[in-house]
Amino acid sequence: QVQLVESGGGSVQPGGSLRLSCAASGFTYRWYCMAWFRQAPGKEREGVAFIDSYGSRSYVDSVKGRFTISEDNAKNTLNLQMNTLKPEDTAMYYCAAKSGVSCGGRFAYWGQGTQVTVSS
Fold first, then answer.
1. Alpha-carbon distance 106 to 19, whole Å?
2. With CB atoms 3.0 to 4.6 Å apart as the test, which of 27, 35, 54, 115 could cross-link to 50 if both were Cys?
3. What is the mean pLDDT of the chain?
C-alpha cells in the first residue's frame, strides 16, 4: 500500500522560505514521476514541480527560479524548497506520485496535503 505523508507547511512572510517534505512508503516502481501540486481556495489544482526517475525536473512558470524539487532515495523522501515566497503561493500543497516514464497523465497516489500561507 502506497502512502505519501507531507510535512513542513506553515505561515511565512513574503520573501521568506519553507521546505516541504513528503515521506513515501510502499512506492517501489522502477519508473516513476513524483510531483508537488497546489490548490488555492476557489482555484483549480495545478502542478508546481515534477521529477521523474531519470532525475529530470520541470516547474510551472510562476515558480521557476524560486522553487526546487529534489528527492532523497535513501530516505524515500521528496522535497520542495520554496524561496522568495509570494502571497500568491498561498495554497494547500500536495505530494503525488505515479508509475511510468512520463509525468503526463493521471497521478494515482496522493498525500493529504500541507498548508502554506504567505502573508504579512
1. 25
2. 35
3. 96
Q: One-letter amino acid identity for 113?
A: G
Question: Where in 40-76 does DSSP place strands (E)?
Answer: 46-52, 57-59, 67-72
Residue 40 phi, psi (nearest 5):
-95, 155
Question: How confident is the model over 79-111, as pLDDT tens digits?
Answer: 999 999 999 999 999 999 999 989 999 999 999
pLDDT band at 27, cuts 50/70/90?
A: confident
d(CA 22, CA 6): 4
Distances (CA, A) of 55 to 69, 92, 99: 10, 25, 14
Rounded to whole angstroms, the Cα distance separating 54 from 31 reads 8
- If one counts every other C-beta atom within 10 angstroms of the C-beta of residue 73, the result is 9
